[in-house]
Amino acid sequence: MGIKKGTELFSKSSSIDTSLRVQREKIIKEKNESSDYRPVVAVDISVWVYKSLSNPRLNSKVSSEYHSIPRVPVTSVATSCIKRAKIYTRNKYDVIYVLDGTSHPLKDEEHALRHDSKKEDTIECQTKLDDAYKNEDKYTVEG
Fold this sequence. Notes:
The chain is mainly α. 52% of the residues lie in helices and 7% in strands. The protein has helices at residues 8-11, 20-31, 45-53, 61-66, 75-90, 108-134, and strands spanning 40-44, 94-98.
């Protein structure tokens, strides 16, 4: 998430309804590669982990492991991520697991945008809060 450079080929063209096989063929054609070319897909694992944990089914093994007492290591999450990756490998992609933890240099541009946006939001909120403290009569509980 947040890495924008170099992702246009996969993300923009895959925003239409297509399969991994068809998408791979488009990538091969656009890059002028041989038929044995394996595109590399970087996956932010936290997205797959959250998706596994938020499974709405009542009989979800992942959810039951996560919420058990005593806590059980959530091996089902790892299994779920591996199963998802196998979908890509079966379709001749190479998968790179991205385990986010620190700022990656490729994300500098995105982090700068997010930081500036948050800074503006924080200033706006602080200004409104200061005004509310100074002018209590202008504000009510209802809004």
